C-alpha cells in the first residue's frame, strides 16, 4: 500500500490513466456496495418479519401489534447509532455530501461507508418509509472520498472521486448508468465541466456492469409499454407537470416542517426515532403500501391496478410517512419516495383523463410513469437526471417528449415558487448555496478571521491634520481607524479624506480627525465568510474594511483587504486543480 501511495504521489495525479483506474476501482466498490446494501435490507427485514418479499404481499399475516412495534424497534436501534456514532447519517444523506463538498472539499469520514449501510438497512428493513438511493449515494461517496484521502488527492480531484462514488451508487441501483452520471454532475456536484465526465462515466458503467452481473439486465421497476396515442396528450402532460410541481413543493414543505417539529421536541435525540417508528407503525396498519422503498406499490400504479381513491390518498400518506421517518432522525433517501409520490400523482391524473377521453389518451400507468420523472425533477431541481433515469427504466424513446414537457414544467414551478430543492434547502438554512459556482464556494468556506491582518493603525478623533499625515506616512495601510478616548471605533479615514481638506483650502489647524472621518463605518466580523467581505468591499468601491468584535462593534480586531481576499482565493483555486 505504501509503494502504491508513493507511486501516486510521484505521478502528482497528472495522468488520465490514474483517474480512469481510480474511477473503475470506485465503480467496483459502488456496485458491490449497492449489492451488499440490498442484502442488508433483506437481512433485517427477514430478521424483523421472517419474510423478504414486498410487504404488501404478506402484511395480512403480520399481527397488528407487530406492525406498530417493529418500526418502533427499528427506530430504537437506529436512534443511538445515529446520535452517538454517525450523525451525518441522519436524514436523507445527500445534503450532508453537498456540505462536505462545499466546506471540506469532499472529505467524508471513512466510517460512514459502513455506518450508513447498517443504519439505513435497519430503518428500511423495519418499515421506515424511505428510499435506498440516498444511502447508496452516501456509501459510494464516502468510499470515493476515503480513497482520495488515503492517496492525498488534490481537493478538486477529491470532489470528482466523490462524484464517481455517487454516480456508481445510483447507476447500480437503477441499472441506469447515464442517470447515475447526470445525478453526480447535475445534482451533487452542480458542475458540468468536461474533465468531470470521463472518470464519472467510467465509475457509473463499472458499477452498472457489476449490478447486471448479479441481478441481470432488468429494470428496477416493472415498467409497462408506453405509447403516445394523440398529440393532444401533450396538453395533459403539461398540466401533469404543473400538478407534480405543486405536489413536490408540498413534499418539501412537509418534510422540513417535520424535521423542525422533531428538532423542537424536548427529548434526547436518540429517543426521537422511537416515536417516529410508532407513528410509522400506525400508518402501516391502514396503508401497508408505504412500507420501506415501496416499489411494489409503484409497480401496481404503473400497471394500472390501483383504484382511484387509493392512488389519491397514497400521495399524501407517503408524504407524511416519509416526513415522519426522516424528521424523527432515521436514515434513508428521498429519491424513491419522490418516485412513489410522482407515480401516485400521475396515476390519479391519468385515471381521470383516461376516463374522460378514453379514445385519445393512454391509461393511468403511462401518466404514472411520466409523473415519476416530473416529481423527481421538481423535488431535486434535476430535470435532466429525472428524464434520463425514466428513459433508461423504460428503454422506450417515445416516452422522451412527454417526459421533457412534464419535467421541465414541474421544475420551473418549484424553482419559481421556492428557492432551494429538497436537497439544497437544508444547506440554505445553514447559509450555504450551490448556485454561485464552485469557485465562489471557496470564499463561503473560509472566514474573515482566517486571513485578516491584526496590525492596523489608529488615530485619536482629536488628532490634527499634521498628526494624521504623519501617521499615514508611517502606515502600511490605506485607512486609519479613528478612536475616542476609550479606544472605541468612531470612524475611519484615508489619504483621500486628507486630500479633500487641501483642495477645499480650509484652515488646517482647526480641523480634527473626527471632522473628516467617515462616521458610518461599514465593517465585518471575524466570523463572517470571505464572500460577505468581498461583496461589501465591491459594493462600496473601497480596498479595506475594519474587522470588529461580534459582541462589541466598537472594538476593532483587525483589517481585511480586497487584495488579500483575491490573493487567498487564487491560492486556494490552485490547490484544487
TrEMBL record:
It comes from the Bacteria. The keyword Glycoprotein does not apply. PROSITE patterns: CBS (PS51371). It is a multi-pass membrane protein. Residues 452-511, 517-576 form the CBS domain. Keywords: CBS domain, Chloride, Chloride channel, Ion channel, Ion transport, Membrane, Transmembrane, Transmembrane helix, Transport. The chain crosses the membrane at residues 21-44, 64-86, 160-185, 235-256, 276-298, 310-328, 334-354, 366-391, 397-417. This is Chloride channel, voltage gated. It comes from Desulfofervidus auxilii.
Amino acid at each position: 500500500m505504501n509503494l502504491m501511495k508513493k507511486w501516486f504521489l510521484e505521478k502528482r495525479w497528472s495522468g488520465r490513466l490514474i483517474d480512469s483506474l481510480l474511477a473503475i476501482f470506485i465503480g467496483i466498490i459502488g456496485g458491490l456496495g449497492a449489492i451488499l446494501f440490498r442484502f442488508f435490507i433483506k437481512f433485517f427485514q427477514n430478521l424483523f418479519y421472517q419474510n423478504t418479499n414486498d410487504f404488501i404481499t404478506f402484511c395480512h399475516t403480520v399481527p397488528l401489534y407487530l406492525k406498530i412495534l417493529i418500526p418502533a424497534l427499528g427506530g430504537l436501534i437506529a436512534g443511538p447509532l445515529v446520535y452517538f456514532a454517525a450523525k451525518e447519517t441522519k436524514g436523507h444523506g445527500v445534503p450532508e455530501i453537498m456540505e462536505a463538498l462545499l466546506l471540506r472539499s469532499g472529505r467524508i469520514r471513512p466510517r460512514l461507508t459502513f455506518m450508513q449501510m447498517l443504519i439505513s438497512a435497519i430503518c428500511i428493513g423495519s418499515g421506515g418509509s424511505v428510499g435506498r438511493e440516498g444511502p447508496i449515494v452516501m456509501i459510494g461517496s464516502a468510499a470515493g472520498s476515503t480513497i482520495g484521502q488515503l492517496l492525498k488527492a488534490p481537493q478538486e480531484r477529491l470532489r470528482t472521486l466523490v462524484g464517481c462514488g455517487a454516480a456508481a451508487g445510483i447507476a447500480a441501483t437503477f441499472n441506469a448508468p447515464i442517470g447515475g452520471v447526470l445525478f453526480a454532475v447535475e445534482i451533487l456536484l452542480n458542475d458540468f465541466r468536461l474533465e468531470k465526465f470521463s472518470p464519472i462515466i467510467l465509475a457509473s458503467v463499472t458499477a452498472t456492469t457489476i449490478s447486471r452481473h448479479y441481478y441481470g439486465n432488468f429494470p428496477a421497476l416493472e415498467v409497462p409499454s408506453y405509447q403516445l396515442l394523440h398529440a393532444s396528450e401533450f396538453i395533459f402532460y403539461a398540466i401533469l407537470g404543473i400538478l407534480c410541481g405543486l405536489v413536490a413543493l408540498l413534499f418539501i414543505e412537509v418534510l422540513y416542517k417535520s424535521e423542525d417539529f422533531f428538532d423542537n421536541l424536548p427529548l434526547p435525540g436518540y429517543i426521537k426515532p422511537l416515536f417516529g417508528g410508532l407513528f410509522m407503525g400506525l400508518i402501516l396498519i391502514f396503508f401497508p403500501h408505504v412500507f420501506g422503498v415501496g416499489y411494489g406499490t409503484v409497480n401496481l400504479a404503473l400497471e394500472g391496478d390501483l383504484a382511484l381513491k387509493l392512488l389519491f390518498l397514497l400521495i399524501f400518506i407517503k408524504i407524511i410517512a416519509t416526513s415522519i421517518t426522516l424528521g424523527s432522525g432515521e436514515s434513508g433517501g428521498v429519491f424513491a419516495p419522490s418516485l412513489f409520490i410522482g407515480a401516485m400523482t400521475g396515476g390519479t391524473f391519468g385515471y381521470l383523463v383516461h376516463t374522460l377521453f378514453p379514445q385519445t389518451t393512454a391509461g393511468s400507468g403511462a401518466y404514472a410513469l411520466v409523473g415519476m420523472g416530473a416529481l423527481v425533477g421538481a423535488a431535486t431541481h434535476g430535470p435532466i437526471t429525472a428524464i434520463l433515469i425514466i428513459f433508461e427504466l423504460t428503454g422506450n424513446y417515445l416516452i422522451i417528449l412527454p417526459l421533457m414537457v412534464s419535467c421541465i414544467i414541474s421544475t420551473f414551478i418549484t424553482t419559481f415558487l421556492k428557492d432551494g430543492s429538497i436537497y439544497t434547502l437544508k444547506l440554505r438554512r445553514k447559509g450555504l448555496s450551490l448556485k454561485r459556482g464552485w469557485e465562489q464556494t471557496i470564499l463561503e468556506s473560509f472566514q474573515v478571521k482566517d486571513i485578516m491582518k491584526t496590525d492596523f493603525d489608529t488615530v485619536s478623533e482629536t488628532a490634527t491634520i499634521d498628526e494624521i499625515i504623519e501617521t499615514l506616512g508611517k502606515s502600511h495601510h490605506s485607512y486609519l481607524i479613528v478612536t475616542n478616548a476609550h479606544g472605541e471605533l468612531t470612524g475611519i479615514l484615508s489619504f483621500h479624506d486628507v486630500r479633500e481638506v487641501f483642495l477645499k483650502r480650509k484652515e488646517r489647524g482647526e480641523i480634527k480627525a473626527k471632522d473628516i472621518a467617515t462616521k458610518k463605518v461599514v465593517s465585518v466580523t471575524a466570523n463572517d465568510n470571505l464572500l460577505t467581505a468581498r461583496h461589501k468591499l465591491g459594493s462600496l468601491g473601497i480596498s479595506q474594511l475594519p474587522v470588529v468584535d461580534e459582541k462589541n462593534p466598537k472594538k476593532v480586531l483587525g483589517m481585511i483587504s480586497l487584495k488579500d481576499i483575491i490573493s487567498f482565493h487564487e491560492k486556494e483555486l490552485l490547490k484544487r486543480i
